[in-house]
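Task: encode each sequence below as structure tokens.

Item 1
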Amino acid sequence: MTETLETNFNLSTRRARVAAFIIDHVVLTFAMVSSIFLLLGPKFMDEENGGKMTMTMLAVMIPGFLFYFSKDAIRGISGGKWIMGIMVRDVNHPKNIPSFIRLVTRNLFVIIWPIEVLVFASNQEKRRLGDKVARTMVVDNPDKPKRLPRIFALVGVGVAFFVFTFLFAASAMKNSEAYKVAVDEIEMNEEILNETGGIKGYGMMPTGNVSISDGNGQAQLQINVLGNKKDLVVSVYLRKEQSGKWNLIELNK
């Protein structure tokens, strides 16, 4: 078996396997989290119905984890493994793709990842516990695509992550009741109106945080105010009593 393996396949390096795992983990986790946020909608910051959020999370995470554990089901190659040019194969017959059940079984052991890390790092076969139980190994893919398409795929994943995070966070913040109240307070502030020469708009991405618990809320926002004469960054602190409205506590520029 060793001679056949050396002739036809090379064991994947630990570095490639770790990189593939990180890529898969980030992509699949991002897909689940973004799906939850999209289902909740941009006004989720004002959501006080904990049951709705819990049901939404369960509706996404149950199929999400099923997909996570079966990520190598297509030809033994997940997205991360495709990018890194590696694949899962039968340890006794390196040309054979393990069955779906065995591929899922090996991934279930990620749940006990500290043990997986120790086993993976301490044996010369470069096999983690899941590999040993499922009788699998990870090898270099001799038919892997050229490097450039794989680099583009990796860059695309990174760009999609940051673009979605930025746009959704901006949309969620601007759709929150706290932000709307803050803008109303800014537009009624004579000192700000005089200093800016009149407000013509606001920056794309306010910063800060909005938190609501048991109907009570706090919000600390930094809003970029675009003026006709001068731009300002205005800090607004608001508080919300249970079942009440957001009230201005402090406004600074």
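Item 2
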Amino acid sequence: MKIKSVLKPKHVAWALGALVGAIMVTLVAHSGAKAAVQPASSPFVEVATVEQRDVPVYGEWIGTLAGQVNADVKAQVTGYLLNRRYKEGSYVRKGQLLFEIDPRPFQAALDQAKGQLDQAQAELIHAEAQLATSEANQLKSQLDVEKYEPLAKADAVSKQDFDNAAQTNLANKAQVRAAEAAIASANAQIRTSQAAVETATINLSFTRVISPIDGIAGIAQAQVGDLVSTSSSPLTTVSTLDPIRDYFTVSEQEYLALQGRLSKSDKDQWKLQLILADGSTYPKEGEFYFADRQVNQNTGAIQLAALFPNPGNILRPGQYGKVRAMIREENATLIPQAAVNEQQGSYLVAVVDKDSRVSMRPVQVAQRSGAMWVIQSGLNPGERVVVEGQQNLRPGMRVQTKPFERDVE
């Protein structure tokens, strides 16, 4: 049995048309989905509120480091340098041997002075013996005078015998005085000889050049074999470096403004920071030490000094050491440093208004305060500035905001 189609030609045509239409709609819809541009969402940025509060104002002054004590080690006698007994740049103790000068001439001078002292002491002994003899003779002649005097009056002895006894007594008295003078001269010679011995002993000791203080010994300025003397330049210099001084100058106006801080008690000393040549901050704080007695009339500045702890003697004299310290507090407008963009010497900040739209605003900046920057003009307290997400921002762009979380200072 054959099955005949129940579709008529017009029905077939209608079905084919519907199918083609459906395919076209699908193609058009698919093509339209690719061509359409979806609206971009607003970017997220982190914003901070412009602050108004008191901040410390710091001053910075160029300084130079120096030893607390700088002792020049000089020769105190003339002679040839025999040895150097220390390592240059090392730590030395007070009394430590640094150099040796040829001691032989000074040892000979000491031996000679001791010989002269022995001679003077021998002369004293001789003079004392002479005095004893003279005194004994004078005593005997005095007794003869006393014996002959009454006899001469009674004509029991001749006047000549009495006169001879009297003259002998006078001569013996003169010998006593001469012996006493000889003793005084011998004593004087002994004192002179003792002084010569002491001087020679000191000069001999000066052939051993020692360190006068504890500290770091510098480079030797004389070599073995050099002839050195009291007029020569220092053999080396020893410096006490812990604590170490930093000399810096401030203007007369700054000095007057700082009087309140300079005059504080020891327990509330003005604290100072030390900025080294590489820009790093020395980890230990220093204290104000003294101000010079006068203002330099040529420069209008006065020299101040600070003391910084220096364990291990890391800091050395002559180093650059800029001093930084708080000089006052003042009310200021503050924003995070990351919110400020520098462009060819100008400073710009992205500001977000109440409608979350961005505007680029020029500002004038002052000094930094921790992680914040002091703004002199261009912003008002309470405004919001973009700190993170500033890339690709354009004026008038709408943004989505969230608070900027900064580290606690």
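Check on item 2: The helical segments are 9-35, 104-153, 159-205, 252-257, 259-262. The chain has five helices and 20 strands.
End of task.
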